[in-house]
Design brief:
By secondary structure, the protein is of the alpha+beta class. The protein folds into 2 domains: 1-30 and 164-194, no CATH class; 33-163, Immunoglobulin-like (Sandwich), CATH 2.60.40.1220. Helix content is 32%, strand content 26%. The chain has 5 helices and 8 strands. The chain has helices at 2-23, 130-135, 140-144, 159-162, 168-192, and strands at 34-38, 52-56, 70-75, 78-80, 82-87, 90-95, 102-111, 117-126. It has a 4-stranded antiparallel β-sheet, with no helix packed on it. A 4-stranded antiparallel β-sheet has the order 4-3-7-8. Strand 3 (70-75) and strand 4 form a beta hairpin. The longest helix is centred in the C-terminal third of the chain and has 25 residues, at 168-192. The chain is rod-shaped and about 90 Å long.
């Protein structure tokens, strides 16, 4: 009878530990998410956009004294210089120069309303007509051969590398350690009740 009571306590303790470890997985689904953008994801634009906006489901957090929004606008693996600002639910990215024809990707990492980092991206082709491309200040040729005064464009770093995030393996190890601790306490408790 005593063995059955102790065994049921051990199973109940393990169940509580599992619930605690895996019950928090649902919280990850509560992060803010991208609800829209301008230009829309995949939509072709006929001229260089003056700004690119991404709208999220809730107000984004701004950390005091630090730039908490990270953006990477790229074309063919080359990062395009931009200026970004975050206000409320919207991230606005302004390219430093007009965009030439080509496929662009804008990757953004923000701090969601629950304090966790959220990443998303959009892609859009710019299809500037030939007559407009000839008068545009930045062209494919000019971008390919920068002058001595201009910095060279560096390859785009993935958004995951732009900020620090905790590796999921660390969370798994922490969960195993906590579960092991709970089991050790239960075993010790069972030995003391004999």
């Amino acid at each position: 009878m005593k063995l059955r009571k102790n065994l049921s306590r051990m199973i109940a303790g393990a169940a509580v530990a599992m619930l605690a470890a895996f019950g928090t997985v649902g919280a990850a689904n509560a992060h803010d998410y991208l609800t829209g953008s301008s230009p829309e994801n995949g939509a072709s634009v006929k001229s260089s956009p003056k700004d690119i906006t991404m709208t999220f489901s809730a107000e984004l957090q701004q950390l005091s004294g630090t730039d908490s929004t990270v953006v990477a606008l790229s074309q063919a693996g080359k990062k395009i210089p931009t200026t970004a600002s975050t206000k409320g639910t919207t991230v606005t990215v302004v390219p430093d120069a007009e965009l030439a024809s080509g496929e662009y990707t804008l990757a953004v990492r923000v701090i969601s309303s629950d304090g966790h980092p959220v990443e998303d991206s959009i892609s859009f082709p710019v299809d500037v007509p030939a007559s407009a491309a000839a008068s545009a200040p930045v062209s494919q040729t000019a971008a390919a051969s920068p002058s001595a005064d201009e910095p060279t464009v560096q390859p785009v770093q993935p958004v995951q590398d732009l900020g620090a995030g905790m590796n999921p393996v660390v969370w798994i190890i922490a969960g195993v350690v906590v579960l092991g601790g709970v089991i050790a306490v239960l075993v010790k408790f069972m030995r003391n009740t004999k």
